[in-house]
């Protein structure tokens, strides 16, 4: 059995839903409490046993790479003040995995972004992660998806139940039964409610099997010349390969939108012993009209 040891983390998007905050700052570097949201994604991967992380970035997002580099400017400056403990805490994550970066110069779809990382993952299963989706819970979400891959030996998509009103915003899966993981008959990209085969929407965590690039090579470009990963997964299904959906344990926050970003900050803060009580008090005051 091929073990999943590599994660591809997509971080090349423009972050238009969070403008103007993301005009000069990568959306992935926006803080959730006191950590950039992409660090939550990386820590989730590390908790799942991932040892190699490949960032797909765009020009102007070099701060992401700097954040995960040992000996970065801030760390060096702190060491010079004699605060070795703080410097070590900043450097620690850089030593827990091998980090690589590839550039996606044009936004041509998720499958195109995955193809940019091909040199690092071709021929092996790998995790695909979207930092916009911050998933909080006692168990690594991508770790759960890796477990489902090991049970099915085919591509696995993380899914969650979505509200009827939100169905047209999601890729929706068509499972053959109610098992978990559930083998899929197909995937429908952003259907109207009446055409949706289920209410299970795709979340930004996958494990893609080693044949995925064969299928990316087969699919034609869609709207705006983009290559979509859902089309490649459909190609796997059509070829008789196993593709499954997995309903994970945890709570997902869409930090790519202002409301989801705010709620994620509050939820993450409430999980911290040093912040939960004072934040709860402050929130109660605000909600009752105080200041």
Overview of this structure, please?
This protein has 291 residues and is of the alpha/beta class. It has a single domain (6-287), classed as Spore Coat Polysaccharide Biosynthesis Protein SpsA, Chain A (Alpha-Beta Complex), CATH 3.90.550.10. It contains 11 helices and 13 strands. The strands form 3 sheets. The chain has a 9-stranded mixed beta sheet with strand order 5-4-1-6-11-8-12-10-9, sandwiched between helices.
Question: Which superfamily, in CATH terms, is the homologous superfamily?
Answer: Spore Coat Polysaccharide Biosynthesis Protein SpsA, Chain A
Amino- and carboxy-terminal Cα gap: 58 Å
The portion of residues forming beta strands comes to 15-25%
The number of E-state strands comes to: 13
Whole-angstrom Rg? 20 Å
Report the sheet with the most strands, covering strand number, pairing sense and barrel closure: 9 strands, mixed
Low-confidence stretches: none
At CATH level 3, the topology is Spore Coat Polysaccharide Biosynthesis Protein SpsA, Chain A
Alpha plus pi helix count: 11
CATH class: Alpha Beta
Shape: globular
Spatial ordering of strands, largest sheet = 5-4-1-6-11-8-12-10-9
Helix content: 25-40%
């Amino acid at each position: 059995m091929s073990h999943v040891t590599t994660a591809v983390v997509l971080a090349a998007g423009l972050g238009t839903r969070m403008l103007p905050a993301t005009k000069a700052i990568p959306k992935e570097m926006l803080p959730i409490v006191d950590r950039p949201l992409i660090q939550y994604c990386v820590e989730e991967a590390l908790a799942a046993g991932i040892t190699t992380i490949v960032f797909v970035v765009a020009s102007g997002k070099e701060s992401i790479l700097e954040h995960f580099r040992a000996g970065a400017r801030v760390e060096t400056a702190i060491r010079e003040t004699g605060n070795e403990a703080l410097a070590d805490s900043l450097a620690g994550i850089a030593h827990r995995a091998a980090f690589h970066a590839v550039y996606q110069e044009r936004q041509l779809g998720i499958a195109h972004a995955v193809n940019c990382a091909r040199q690092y993952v071709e021929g092996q299963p790998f995790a695909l992660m979207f930092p916009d989706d911050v998933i909080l819970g006692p168990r690594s979400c991508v770790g759960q998806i890796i477990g489902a891959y090991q049970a099915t030996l085919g591509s696995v998509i993380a899914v969650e139940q979505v509200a009827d009103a939100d169905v047209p915003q999601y890729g929706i899966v068509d499972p053959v039964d109610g098992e978990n993981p559930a083998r899929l008959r197909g995937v429908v990209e952003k259907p109207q409610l009446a055409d949706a085969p289920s209410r299970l929407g795709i979340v930004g965590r996958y494990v893609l099997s080693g044949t995925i690039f064969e299928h990316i090579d087969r699919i034609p470009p869609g709207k705006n010349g983009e290559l979509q990963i859902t089309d490649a997964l459909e190609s796997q299904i059509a070829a008789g390969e196993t593709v499954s959906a997995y309903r994970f344990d945890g709570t997902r926050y869409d930090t790519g939108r202002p409301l989801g970003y705010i709620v994620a900050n509050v939820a993450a803060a409430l999980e911290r012993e040093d912040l939960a009580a004072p934040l709860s008090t402050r929130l109660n005051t605000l909600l009752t009209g105080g200041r």
